[in-house]
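Question: Hello, beginner here. Any chance you could explain the protein record under this note? Any guidance would be welcome.
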Amino acid sequence: MPLTPDALATARSALATAFDGGAPVEFTADGTVALRPQARDPARCGHPDAVAVVRTSGSTGTPKEIVLTRGALRASAAATAQRLGGEGTGGEGHWLLAVGVHYVAGLAVLSRTIAAGTAPVALPPGPFTPAAFAAGAARLPDDGGPRFVSLVPTQLARLLAPGADPAGVAALRAFDRVLVGGARLAPELRASAEAAGVRVTATYGMAETCGGCVYDGVPLPGVTADTVPSDPADPAASPRVRLAGPMVAAGYLDDPVRTAAHFPRGADGAPAFLTEDTGTVSGTPDGGTRLSVTGRLDDVVITGGVKVSAAAVAAALEAHPGVAAAHVAGVADPEWGQRLCAAVVPAEGDVLPGGALPAALEDELRSRVRTGLGPAAVPKTWLALDALPLLSTGKTDRQELTRRFAEA
């Protein structure tokens, strides 16, 4: 939600005061500041250096309050500046705030501007439109300094949509770097952005890591990305992604059990975060590492006694030229244990009455999945949608889709 200039100034000032020793803060969607002194109580999974609390339910509906410290936010801002500066633009510059400060991406923008000594510019209040985006970008200082913005994929898609106001694309091109995170950046969307001359970087991270800490698969300076077994009893289980570095949060407020499970300490005492994602890590020619996120731990569906990766099925569906987006999940079923379900957004908008796919397209998709992943991976329930339901963060609303699958 865009903020008025006064609300933005107040939010930035409150965070700066917290950095200087004032009470930790939490922001609401309209930029209202709530003080959270309990975030500095270690007995409540807080930290003496806490400066902010980010509240999130994620896409699964499990509420969490993440405690971010002074050191973590500063480390995140410094690593971001170093990576962006390494691209020859200078890493500390002017930022357009296009996401709410109650989300970690917006909070990170405030933190970066505090570190850079610059003032962020927010989009004008109202719906996100190409015209509003262009108007906000036009208010950034024109002093030759680098210009940056963080977006979610949904925002980028709206700016690049056929027939959209060309002012939005022109504004995108003027940024030295457009960071896109919060949800998976589809290869087709990235290709469209790059074809339009937009300098895009896909970021991976979460509130527990002060936002994106892996850019285009490469960890930021000071960040280590590796994997650990997700199920020691099953050697074939997809490995779980672990992120470590100084930008890792202190833990979950008033939730010691979850904090202990997700925030282990390494042998050297370095903070780490066990994500809910699966992935692989490979080497790079320069001796670094590259992270590829392959899915989520809860993506594995056991249907008829066979384990199926919902992410792999969704990727197979989205690879079909007739599919714009897809989501696959399992729901309880008395016969199969879990019934594999797919929600598909046809590229041409061919949604038949009752939410059915055209028969020819469904047959092609069934054949594609059966050939590539085996018969057990073929969804038993199909929904055709005009668009996937999204949370305000731009992530797919998995709970809403699971509800629709259960009703189908």
User: Anything to note?
Assistant: The mean pLDDT is 90.
